[in-house]
Amino acid sequence: MNVGIIGCGNISPTYFNSHKLYNNFKVIACADINHDIAKKKAEEFNVTLQSVDEILVNPNIDIIVNLTIPSAHKEIIMKTLEAGKHSFSEKPLAMNFEEGLAIQKLAKEKNLYVGCAPDTFLGAVGQKAKEIIDSQKIGNIVLGTFNLMSHGMEHWHPNPDFFFKPGAGPVFDVGVYYITQLVNLLGPVESIV
Q: Are 39 and 129 in a shared domain?
């Protein structure tokens, strides 16, 4: 499976490097609204530099990995699906529930897959915990909680401005990992205390 990456920012090296670990996909092209950043990543990771429009019509690409800022996710995902390609996006999938429904509707119409981070619940620790819980070895779980302490994005991200705009922030960018893990382990939320 050939992958095209749209959005070559801070998280992109994780995705560019991941195809070295697996033999079932290969990153072959990248694009970004900032041409200089895209050019740098294309050279660094030995992939083809393309514009967003070019990458979407590239017949050799099966799936687009969307690493753009949150407010651009729906637009890029919809364009990806309209181009007949599968989509995997960084979080959040969309800015609101209605946008998510529109993405789901188009994906079903086009018979294409859409995935979204975080997928960390699929890792060994999350899967082992789920196996133990599902086996009833530790009884019924009645409560899930997590606590996160951090200095904040502005202390580690080279360009944190978008973290403070709609569709971003602590819940969407960090808390979502823990919320996803809890929902995976315990099922849908029934109440919040």
A: no
What is the β-pairing status of strands 2-6 and 26-31? parallel
**Apex 164 CA angle, 34 and 99, nearest 5:** 75
pLDDT, tens only, 142-176: 888 887 777 777 777 777 776 777 766 667 777 78
CB atoms within 10 A of CB 129: 15
Residues 152 and 77 in one domain: no
Q: How far apart are CA 186 and CA 190, in angstroms?
A: 10
| Helical segments of 46-175, H only | 52-57, 73-82, 97-110, 124-134, 170
Q: What is the pLDDT of residues 102-144, one digit of tens each?
A: 999 999 999 999 999 988 888 888 999 999 999 999 998 888 8
Instruction: Give yes or no: residues 165 and 93 share one domain.
Output: no
Closest listed residue to residue 68, CA positions, set 158, 168, 151, 181: 168
The sign of the CA dihedral 126, 153, 42, 44 is negative
Domain match, 92 and 78 both: yes
Question: Burial level of 92, CB count in 10 A (0-12/13-18/19+)?
Answer: buried
Structure-derived torsion over alpha carbons of residues 81, 7, 123, 165, reported in degrees to the nearest 10: -100
At residue 41, φ and ψ (nearest 5 deg) are: -70, -40
